[in-house]
Amino acid sequence: MDPCLESMKTASLPDLPYAYDALEPAISEEIMKLHHQKHHQTYVTQYNKALDKLRSALSDGDHSSVVKLQSIIKFNGGGHVNHAIFWKNLAPVHEGGGKPPHDPLSSAIDAHFGSLEGLIQKMNAEGAAVQGSGWVWFGLDKELKRLVVETTANQDPLVTKGSHLVPLIGIDVWEHAYYPQYKNARAEYLKNIWSVINWKYASDVYERNNRDQTEI
Ligand SMILES: [Fe+2]
């Protein structure tokens, strides 16, 4: 087998950077435990299984199986990638959760969306309108140097909407992200999650990628 394939590390469930109850009352301990320990873990497990099958299929030259595995890899690998970002997008209030971003991200948001409130309203509206399961994203288009709001279905990562898109904040709008606490009130979940959004993380990613773009 190709040594690159053999040495590819398996995915693993990242630790949460805060306690399960640290995001209350915006997101309950029950949801955080289920979401992290059950849902995210399942994506990791299924992704690793699919990667094992892919290694075998590639080794055997089984093209049919290689193609067949793409959708399950996209779904479970996307689930792993998206949730790994999502946990970092959140922070307890006493650790800066909900604290608005500083410049340069703050000025960029004002320029693109009028104000931070304008961005939040747009994300809430688009997140509420996602049919079925998916994500609403706030991202940076590195090529066009502009901020974007996008939605993706299922577990599609933001990059499926454009190879130059970098996620700054992704909000999970699958029912598993809010149903035990908010029932069918997705809009209420979207309204409350901003009180625990980690703008420092978004700012760091923005500055790193904007700087890279400038240096090219
Ligand atoms: Fe989720």
Spatial order of strands in the largest sheet: 2-1-3
Q: What fraction, in percent, of the residue positions are helical?
A: 40-55%
The whole-angstrom Rg is: 18 Å
Average pLDDT, to the nearest integer?
A: 95
- CATH topology value of the largest domain: minor pseudopilin epsh fold
SS class:
mainly alpha
Strand content bin: 5-15%
Basic shape? globular
Total of DSSP H or I helical runs spanning 4+ residues: 8
The arrangement of helices and strands along the chain is HHHHHEEEHHH
The count of DSSP E runs of length 2 or more, i.e. the number of strands, is: 3
Named once each, the bound ligands are: fe (ii) ion
| Distance N to C terminus | 36 Å
Q: Low-confidence spans: pLDDT under 50, at least 5 residues?
A: none
Number of domains: 2
CATH superfamily of the largest domain: Iron/manganese superoxide dismutase, C-terminal domain
CATH architecture of the largest domain: 3-Layer(bab) Sandwich
The CATH class of the largest domain, by name, is Alpha Beta
Structure description:
This protein has eight helices and three strands. By secondary structure, it is mostly helical. The chain has two domains: 65 residues, Orthogonal Bundle (Helix Hairpins), CATH 1.10.287; 116 residues, minor pseudopilin epsh fold. It has a three-stranded antiparallel β-sheet. A hairpin with a 4-residue loop joins strand 1 and strand 2. The longest helix has 32 residues. The radius of gyration is 18 Å and the shape is globular. The model has no long low-confidence stretch (mean pLDDT 95). The structure holds fe (ii) ion. The site of fe (ii) ion (FE2) has 7 residues, from helix 2.
